[in-house]
Every structure is written in structure tokens, then in C-alpha cells.
């Protein structure tokens, strides 16, 4: 394993720890907050700031999983459908009268199994990540709608403890924020300080070189989709506990949000570069931007145009930077 510690891979490992492109993203976030405060005094309202933090947490958790996948030069378009299936599964399990802990474990297992299916298709079956996860996206959404018969499923009356996950507070911060911070901290540690993290960067940087270095490329590839599925199911639990219903359409479009957050945070769609710290800042930037547009009355449809444009601009900037660096 020592052979993978080339200069390029060491550089990639550091990218998982430090903020990408220096403090640029932090200044962008600060600038957006200033603009938001100037455009609408309501932005600095404590209730609004709490809602922004919840938004960061909800999208941030699934975006961490997306970051792991993109670092290996993959993509996971199925995370929204996994959230939908897990949301419906959670509600159905509560309807069976199962204990809260059992419901949560089985819901997480459902997400892991769907992530494992993606991983097997990509790593073992050789299906391109875009095609495999696109197929899972369509099948998953159909499964969620079938299980729920196209209707939201109420959790019933036995969910007061479970609601704490999505609605509760701890030490002055919403519980979902703490969940996101824990997930992000573990992910940063894994990518920065473990051999597995270095293997992820190595696979994304050069899959053939990684294979020749003794890395089990198929296992690493399989594992990142497993992580993505698990974090998508965790996001589903937060969604359901906050809304107290299992929506078969839950998570619709969140794959766009997750990709945008990862790309804004400096994770390269070409693999091997980026990290979770950038994802945290990217989630905050996108949440503040969405909040600004909501406060000034921008249509949700127009917001989708803006978010799509952000992805395109970020990728174009990355490609321009790479061409400039190669000159």
C-alpha cells in the first residue's frame, strides 16, 4: 500500500482536508450573507437562520455521500429516489407498530441495499455510473409510488420520540445540524487520515494506476455507493421525522442539489480532487442562495434554472483552470 503514496496522491489527500481554492469559498459565503441581509432584513431573523441551518443539514448529509462517489469519478443520480423509497418504508414500518429503533435500522438498511445494488452494477457489472444510477432513480421512484399507492403515508400517533430527529434542538442547534456535523467530521477523518480515504482519491485520479498499486478498485467503487445509499436513507429519516409523513415524492430533485453542492465545494467531476470541507461550505452557499431567492420572491422554477447554471459554470471554470494549469 505504500506505493500509492505518490506526490499526486498526497496532494489529493491534502485537498480532502483544506478548503479548496484557499479562502475563496468562505468569502463567497460571507458575501452572500451580506447581500442577503441588505436585500431582506428578515434574513438575520433567528427563525430564518435556523431554517437555513436545517436546509444546510438536510442537503449536506446526502451531499457528503455524493462527494465520496464523485471523488471516484462516479455519479449517483438515484439518491433522491432512495430517499423516496426509504421515506415510504419508514412510514409503512411505523404502521406495523414496530419500535422506533427497529424502524430506523430497517429504513437505513433499505438505503444501504439500494446503494449496494448501484455499487454492484458499477463495480462488478461494469455499467457506467450515469446509466446504473439513472436506472435506479427511475426504478426507485416507481417503487416508492407503488408502495405508497401514490399517496403520502401518515406515521400515526406513536412517533413523538422519532420526531425529535427532525424537529428537536440540542444545545441551541437543531438536531439535523448535529447529525450533519457528525457525518461531516467522520467523512473528513476518513478521507484525510485513513488508507481507505487515500484509496478513494487514488481510484478517482487514475484507476489503472490504483489497480497496479494493489488497490481493490472494485471494492472501493462498491463501497462509495454503499455510503451514498446509507446517507440518503439517513436524510430520509430526517425528512420523515420533520414532516411526519412518508412522501413517495420525497427527495425529488435532491440529486441536483447534491451534485451542485459538491461541485461548488470544489469536488471535481473528473475525480480525485475535492473534499468534505468544501462540501460543507458548498451546502451553506447553496442554502443561503436559495434563501435569498425565497425572500425576494423568486419562482421555484427560476431557482432550478439558477442551480443548473451554477453546475455548468462551476464545471466550465474547472475545465478552464485545468487547461490553464497544463499550459
Automatic annotation (TrEMBL):
Keywords of the record: Cell membrane, Membrane, Transmembrane, Transmembrane helix
Cellular localisation: Cell membrane
InterPro entries on file: ABC_transp_permease
GO molecular function: transmembrane transporter activity
Transmembrane segments: 24-44, 56-71, 77-95, 102-124, 170-191, 222-244, 256-289
Membrane protein topology class: Multi-pass membrane protein
Record carries keyword Transport: no
Organism domain of life: Bacteria
Cellular component terms (Gene Ontology): plasma membrane
Keyword Cell membrane in annotation: yes
Location (main, coarse): membrane
The protein, known as: Ribose ABC transporter permease
Naturally occurring in which organism (per UniProt): Limimaricola cinnabarinus
Gene: rbsC
